[in-house]
Task: structure prediction
Amino acid sequence: MRRSSYVSVLTKLDELAARGVELRLLHAEIPSRPFREELAHHPRLVAGGLALRRCPRVHMKAVIVDGGLLYLGSANWTGAGLGAKGSGRRNFETGIVTDDAQLLDQIQSIYERIWSGGECAACKLRDVCPGPLSELP
Result:
């Protein structure tokens, strides 16, 4: 595939936000400079269309769509992780897409517990936790 055939994930998220879709992203660290620069081009997302929170212990990669479809895999949302790099520069990734209700319930429960701070009290990194991404300048 040619690089020009790829569309930014943030462009797609912005389209969803324009339709009123609730978008939430848990991230372990401050997103990369290219991500932040691209995000700045999407004022709707910056203004709250994409809710961002940070937890240094998050390493899972999951996408949940309307509580009925789940992607669970290894890919980071980078060019190499999503296959946007040249054929010799792409990561080797695995993942599944499923509508299995039991797995969806489990992953949504884990996500919601982390999102809402349910893991914070027992976390050994709480004293160094940087706080949610939404508080970044």
About this structure: Helices lie at 9-18, 33-39, 43-49, 79-82, 101-115. Residues 15 and 21 are 9 Å apart (CA to CA).
